[in-house]
Amino acid sequence: MKKLIITGLLAMTTAAWAQTTVKVEDAWVRGTVSTQKATGAFMRLTPSANARLVEAQSPVAGVVEIHEMAMEKDVMKMRQVPGLDLAAGRTMELKPGGYHVMLMDLKQQLKGGDTVPLTLVFEDDAKKRFTQELKVPVTALGGGNAPAPMKHDMGHGAHKQ
């Protein structure tokens, strides 16, 4: 009986330590002009185990959605998607012209050099949700799509459950 209890406790402890993580790289937000009410956030996501990006939040926008741009009969269309499946160890790139996080009903202009707080909400295979808090640099209009090199202290390691 003792052995069964110890084995059960060990299994629960191992499961608690085996939390899925998602590595976020090269995150950036496209800058806006003063009257613009929407922009996109872009990045590369690499999960340690299968996961799904199910939501995003930011205090700079009234609405934050996960979007896809795709060609339909020679017309580029953008639409909201309910989530993005992320395969273990494989990088999913959120980029202009493809999948991205859409920030709408912006509360202020986003200028080059600004930083945008962004919370990504993921689900693991067991449907357990976890969040990742980011501080994403804004790339100035006309500054190209290349993000500035990210520092390791930018808040990318802050996980909440």
What does this structure look like?
The chain has about 160 residues and is mainly beta. About 10% of the residues lie in helices and about 50% in strands. The protein is built from 1 helix and 11 strands, in the order αβββββββββββ. Strands 1, 2, 3, 4, 5, 6, 7, 8, 9, 10 and 11 form an 11-stranded mixed β-sheet that branches. Strand 9 and strand 10 form a beta hairpin. The longest helix has 16 residues. It is globular and about 45 Å long. The C terminus is likely disordered.
Which secondary structure elements does this structure contain, and how are they paired or packed?
Elements: H1 2-17, E1 22-30, E2 38-47, E3 51-57, E4 61-72, E5 75-80, E6 84-86, E7 92-94, E8 100-106, E9 115-124, E10 129-139, E11 159-160
Parallel strand pairs: 1-10
Antiparallel strand pairs: 1-2, 2-7, 2-8, 3-6, 3-9, 4-5, 4-8, 9-10, 10-11
